[in-house]
Amino acid sequence: MEYLRAFLCGGILCAIGQIFIDKTKLTPARILVGYVVAGVFLQAVGVYERIAAWGGAGATVPLTGFGYNLAKGVEKAVGEQGWTGIFTGGLTATAGGVAAAVLFGVIAAVLFKPGEKR
Hints:
The protein is mainly alpha-helical.
């Protein structure tokens, strides 16, 4: 059942993004930034925690999950360090994911030869 909920949650988030691409003039980059901001906002108002608990990886892996992790990291750091946590919490909470993305990007660049699309 956990896999089904993750599939549904991630699928709904992707479907919303596709609707934005099809029905608006927003660029994909702006939609992706909007997803990160939406994740931060929904965590700030206390909604995304419940979405993540229900959807599991379907909620934490997409870009809304990145925003959620940023907000959660800031919240935790502010509780531990005070106001300086605003600047360090998001970086600390997301450092592992960003480092993994860079590492896998480098590995893919080394292993595969880029070419022009035809």
